[in-house]
Amino acid sequence: MLRRECNDVRRGRRAPRMQAIAALALALCAGPAAGAFAGPQAASAPSHRIFLTDGTAVVSFGEFARASGRVVFTVPIGSPSNPDALQVVSLPESAVDWDRTDRYADAVRHQFYAATRGEEDYAALTGAVARALGDIAFSADASSKLAIAADIRRQLLEWPGAHFAYRSGDVRELTAHVEEAISEIRAGSGQRTFDLSLVAMIEPPSEPLLPEPTLKDSLDYAAAVAQMTDSRRVRLSLQQSILAVLERRKRQVPKDWYSATRKVLAGSIEREHALDRDYAELASRTLRDARDREEHADVAALDRLVADAQKEDARLGYQRPETMQALLASLVNSAAKAREKREAIDRYKYRKSAWSAYRSRIDDRLGEFDDVTGDIGAVRALAGVKGRRLSKAERRVAAIEVSLLPMTPPVELGPAHDLLVSSARLMREALRLQRGATTSGDAAATQNASAAAAGALLLLETARTRIDEFFRRPAAP
User: pTM of the predicted model, to two decimals?
Assistant: First the structure.
């Protein structure tokens, strides 16, 4: 491709003032051709590093990401270029030296690009510049020359930013040649005006790359990350993976270092398991005691359980915040239930003491209601209550109504007491309608008496239920 384009540049007669432009085009054709045909070289990317505020430089397998105030990256366990295992980890953003970390990431991207596609892409750029300069050299129209030059100048200015600043110095030199060509074209066409465009050129990253870590260094970095993470599950998983890789590849690391590192990791893992057991026992014991205290409505004892659990958490070093959060939430819930039960007991005791006289009298009245409900039920069932039975029922209902009127119930039972009075009056009305129906034989009156009796019995049952609930003793603690 480039060889054919360069042959195109050689054809034709060059105007004297454009000989320098044509020479540059030919030089560009000759220079990058070999690189263009060679293709990208096989290369692996240098390891990414995350620099912490304490100076530690941990290895990241590939790029990292920032999300929700944390940095998420993959820890290689083993040689970074060919790790035995990978573990996704996150750390707080505040723990990272972002200026240096970002500079290093730019340097890694620059280096990897330079080792893979950089030369091929640069060859394509110089080929495009060569074609443009060739077109300029053999174009007769000044406006066409300027348009071609302006377009290639734009490509040159944009190229470093889109290609990790690869060979930015060479691109800057090419840009200068194109600027000279533009000036010559304008001067040759008699133009006396010019455009001044100030563009900040991007420089290659200056952050030096660190040597690729050895197997020993990689495992050290992974162990350091395990100590930094605030997730117990991730820490334990990472330490177990490191220990497994260490066992498989122990012949590839120094013997003394292997023994010391294995001892530290095994001890840390055992401490994690011991803490799991301690916190599980703490939660089980505390919840068992809490159920007993809740059953006995012992709020003070539940408060002591909270204090004891927090004291034990402090002794264990506050190592399981999620377990303690769930445990304390359960204790708060138990305390609320116990407090509610204790308040119900205290309410019952107060009502039993303060309203004992009312309760005694209302129980008597409810017993009297029971004496007449059989007759009222017969009226409701259209069974036909007559004669002395009817008169006796009327007297009893009237007496119940009279006895209810002067009674003063608790405020909470005022509506229920009114329902009893209304029930007595509706019973009396049902009996009156029944007497009239018995005398006249009026079927409609009998139906009205039945409806009144049904309503009276419903009011009585509703009132009785509310009174029983008010004076009901809570479940024994």
Answer: 0.59
